[in-house]
Write a structure and sequence with these properties.
The structure holds 2 protein chains of 2 kinds. Chain A is an alpha/beta fold. In chain A, 48% of the residues lie in helices and 18% in strands. In chain A, strand 1, helix 1 and strand 2 form a beta-alpha-beta unit. The C terminus of chain A is likely disordered. Chain B contains 10 helices and 12 strands. By secondary structure, chain B is of the alpha+beta class. In chain B, helix 5 packs antiparallel against helix 6 and helix 7 packs parallel to helix 8. The chains are: A alpha/beta, B alpha+beta. At the A-B interface, helix 1 of A face helix 5 and helix 6 of B.
């Protein structure tokens, strides 16, 4: 299943890696280098999934999450935190903040395919059909 | 004659009476002297009050010194008349209670000195009879210094806690900075090995897998720092899963064999054919074995490093014993107890690149997965470190 996936990531190499992986798995990636741009692209492209780095310049991942989840149109897009800052309890904290999932860096390429598929499938469950097709 | 006798007997009797009285007086004097000495030299303040009137009838030098009032100022007055107690009403109430109960005790009573300084005291009063009159003895211990020390200690403790917090935050931030570049290294090594950009030849695949193993090893070292800050702060999650020891040993050997071979060392595995199963956190287990094997390689110049698996019975339990045995320099007896300490590097002359966290963390991790680490070592001959963990 091909999906439109937005990656918000400021680190060049990490961004390139995610874009490459998503393309390899047959998805259509969009890129954004900071939170502001991420929200813009989310508005214009309405992706099926957003992967967002936590440590972004200016607007960090928490703020991006807050804005996306308070937007009536964008809130239904599954949002996955992407971070190297993996402390115990972070996952729960992020889910509580409104993220729909959590991907720990360094990512394991062999697992990314399944993880992305999982996040996309959870979207089918939680998002009504009408909103998805709009 | 009879008179004489009679008289003499009277005299004797009188003599006897006098000497008895003298003895009693002497004893009394001696007792009074002992009491005086104690009273005068005591390192606590002592006040004697008349129990009925509440007037001070005696005060010892220590209290005079402590509070700065003269003896004359004390004598004949009631406690609140000399401004010892700021709250007159409370003092009167306390005295009434003392009269009723015969005992009163304050843990942390502020008394004012003549100069208006506050001394914190422990104040204990007892009332008792002296002859026919009832008196109250108040023992006044100056605890100002003790309280000050306690306060300082408490402040130092808070400071220490803050410093520890700062250290943990620093470690967490450092770990983040160090892990970010590894994302690309491990990620792209992975894409290449998956053959996503195209097929690899055998050499490329082998070399890339070495890059991957090394990068993962580096990651695990960085995770040490993260783990340490977590273990230290008590926030750590143990994910138990069924593990076959041989599998983890193979992984560790594969990761570290190149390191050993670079030094011309043999790296061997010795284990029973049938799988020995334990329940443990996989990452913690392999981290312990990597740490132990890494040390073995680091401190061995010739010979071999071997990971050996045996099982043994102990207290009705079967334990898996994973032993890392080297033929290295060994550890001097005097260094052995420093071994498991944080940031402790034995033999500073030995050029090694470790953090000094390996064994310290390994031991903490072993405890977390309900195991323990033992070792034996002979200086100049080699060391054996073993992880003991109950089989599943």
């Amino acid at each position: 299943m091909s999906a439109r996936v937005l990656v918000i990531e400021d680190n060049d190499s990490s961004l390139e890696l995610m874009i490459y992986l998503l393309k390899s798995f047959g998805h259509m990636p969009f890129r954004a280098r900071d939170g502001e741009e991420g929200i813009q692209v989310a508005r214009s492209e309405r992706p099926d999934l957003i992967l967002c780095d936590m440590q972004l310049p200016a607007m960090d991942g928490h703020e991006v999450c807050r804005r996306l989840k308070s937007d009536p149109v964008l809130r239904s897009i599954p949002l996955v935190a992407l971070t190297a800052y993996a402390m115990v309890g972070d996952r729960e904290k992020m889910l509580a903040e409104g993220f729909d999932g959590y991907l720990s860096k360094p990512v394991n390429p062999e697992q990314v395919k399944d993880q992305v598929a999982l996040f996309l499938s959870s979207r089918t469950r939680i998002v009504p059909q009408s909103i998805r097709s709009s | 004659m009879s008179d004489k006798l009679f008289n003499s007997s009277i005299l004797t009797g009188v003599q006897h009476d006098i000497s008895e009285k003298t003895c009693a007086e002497e004893a009394l004097q001696a007792s009074e002297l002992r009491y005086r000495r104690l009273f005068e030299s005591a390192k606590d303040g002592i006040l004697i009050l008349d129990a009925d009137s509440g007037q001070i009838i005696d005060v010892n030098p220590f209290l005079i010194e402590m509070l700065g009032f003269s003896k004359e100022e004390f004598l004949g007055k009631e406690l609140w008349q000399i401004g010892l107690f700021k709250d007159v009403t409370a003092s009167r109430l306390a005295f009434a209670e003392l009269q009723r109960r015969g005992y009163i005790r304050y843990e942390n009573l502020p008394l004012e000195t003549r100069e208006g300084l506050v001394r914190l005291v422990e104040f204990v009063s007892n009332s008792y009879l002296v002859g026919k009159s009832r008196v109250i003895q108040c023992n006044v211990r100056d605890i100002t210094e003790r309280k000050r020390f306690e306060q300082t200690l408490q402040e130092k403790n808070i400071e220490l806690g803050n410093a520890n917090l700062a250290k943990n935050r620093f470690l967490a931030n450092m770990s983040h900075e160090l892990r970010t570049p590894l994302n690309a290294i491990i990620g792209f090594t992975g894409t290449l090995l998956m053959g996503l950009p195209g097929p690899l030849n055998a050499d490329q695949e082998h070399q890339l897998s070495l890059v991957q193993i090394s990068a993962r090893h580096l990651l695990s070292l960085i995770n040490d720092l993260l783990d340490l800050s977590k273990v230290e702060s008590g926030k750590v999650e143990v994910n138990y899963e069924p593990i076959v020891c041989q599998g983890v040993m193979e992984e560790v050997a594969e990761a570290l064999r190149p390191l050993a071979e670079d030094k011309g060392l043999e790296f061997k595995i010795k284990a029973p054919k049938s799988g020995v199963r334990i329940a443990a956190d996989r990452r913690m287990l392999s981290q312990i074995l990597i740490n132990l094997s890494n040390n073995a390689i680091k401190f061995t110049e010739k010979g071999q490093v071997q990971i050996q698996l045996v099982t043994r019975r102990s207290n009705g339990q079967t334990l898996a014993s994973i032993e890392v045995i080297d033929t290295g320099i060994g550890i001097k007896v005097e260094d052995q107890k420093k071994l498991f300490q944080e940031f402790q590097q034995i033999s500073p002359d030995h050029r090694n690149e470790g953090t000094g966290l390996g064994l310290y963390l390994s031991e903490k991790l072993a405890i977390l997965i309900k195991g323990k680490i033992e070792f034996e070592s002979e200086y100049g001959k080699g060391s054996t470190f073993r992880l003991l963990i109950p089989t599943a």
